[in-house]
Amino acid sequence: MEKSIENIWKEGFIKSDALIAPKINNLYDQKSIHIIDKFKRMFKINLIAIVAFSFVYLVVTFFIGIPIMGTIFFITLTLLVIVNKRLLNGLERINKGANSYQYLKAFNQWINKQIAINKRMSTFLYPIIFMSFVFGFWFKDAEGIPLGERLVNEILVGFPNTYLIYGIPLIGIIIAVLIVSLLAFFGGRIYMWDLNIVYGRVFKKLDELLTDLESLRN
Amino acid sequence: MSSDFYNTSILPFAGIIIKLCRAYTNSQEDFEDYYQEVCLQIWRSKDNFREESEWSTWVYRISLNVCLTLLKKKKNNVQHFVSDSVTVEETEASYAFSDESLNLLYNAIRKLSEIDRAIIMLYLEEKPYQEIAEIIGTNPNNIGVRVKRIKMKLKKLLDGKIN
After folding, report:
1. Chain B: residue nearest A29 by CA?
2. Is residue A5 less than 8 Å (CB to CB) from chain B?
């Protein structure tokens, strides 16, 4: 006669010595491999790196005479850090002691929120960085006059019929608008592409777990 | 972590933690990582325990939630949930129990979805449907229906293998 799974379970663990707890060493110093802790670590490292980089960049741009570029860069990245610090606080609030559905749902909502916000910010981030380069070099001092004006004067010598809008060649404006549009269009996509390479499988699996739990609730 | 907390609040429930962790891993190394992580998370989250449920239910919840979402990095830097990759074929021989029937049952359990693994483990631990439902986050009736289905699946997987 076949044994029931209940009997296999009971008898197996009576006979077996498999319930000996492994030895725990320096548990408090262990690096957590839990997804939420990994995200927290990744966020913290990224935020510290962004703050350090933008500050160093600001100082360097002052020294090399393109402070506008460094200032725009610094303000933009500071806003990015503030927004992501708030997102990190949301991650701290996820309760691992909640039931599995609430826990996975809360984590999934946090992921979707951070993806949506960062994707949207990437749409603006790359164009702003590009424009900070343009403004930085345009207003860089070149022997008493801004580098941009000097460049326009030289263009006008070679091409006197160049059409200007507020002192800027139309062709330059068109090229800048085109680059900004392309960066805005691809900014969010680059962010998603980058994220999916590393975490695509995790997000898919999380969706599967939630779908299974939702089917169990209906 | 204070050894007092471990001895009084975790060790009495080590049995279910070990059983759960084994269902989501296929090597001794992964199992030990899981066990450590579950203990670490129980300790870190202890202040969030509001006594709305039994301490044991809360320990099961954390153990399960941790087991469902432990991350590992693959060689190409891609992250994945460890429980996702558990296949019976890859289970280390040295990781087996001395009881052959129990091994076959565990191997069959590892073939189930992550949620089904959790439900059947709690059922086998003789937790009432109400408590399983509280841990998973659903209602007891649906747990009852799902347990029946899982048992049928396990029966099929074990068909003729155990006398």
Report:
1. B1
2. yes
Longest dimension (CA), chain B: 48
Minimal C-alpha gap between A11 and chain B (Å): 8
CATH topology assigned to domain B3-158: Butyryl-CoA Dehydrogenase, subunit A; domain 3 (1.20.140)
Interface contact flag, A217 B33, Cβ < 8 Å: no
Interface touch B79/A198, C-beta < 8 Å: yes
- Is the Cα torsion angle B131, B134, B135, B141 positive or negative in sign? positive
* Tens digit of each residue's pLDDT, chain A (218 residues): 567 899 999 888 886 666 788 887 776 677 777 888 888 888 899 899 999 999 999 999 999 999 999 999 999 999 999 999 999 998 888 888 899 999 999 999 999 999 999 999 999 999 999 999 999 999 998 888 999 999 999 999 999 999 999 999 999 999 999 999 999 999 999 989 988 888 888 889 899 999 999 999 88
Domain ranges of chain B: 3-158
Cβ atoms of A48 and A40 within 8 Å: the answer is: no
What is the number of structural domains in chain A?
1
A198 lies in which domain range?
A: 85-217
**Cα separation, A112 vs A58, whole angstroms:** 32
pTM, to two decimals: 0.84
- How many residues are given for chain A? 218
The answer to whether B41 contacts A34, with C-beta atoms less than 8 Å apart, is yes
Residues of A in contact with B109 (CB under 8 A): none
CA distance A187 to B52: 46
Rounded to a whole number, what is the distance in Å from the CA of B87 to chain A's nearest CA?
16
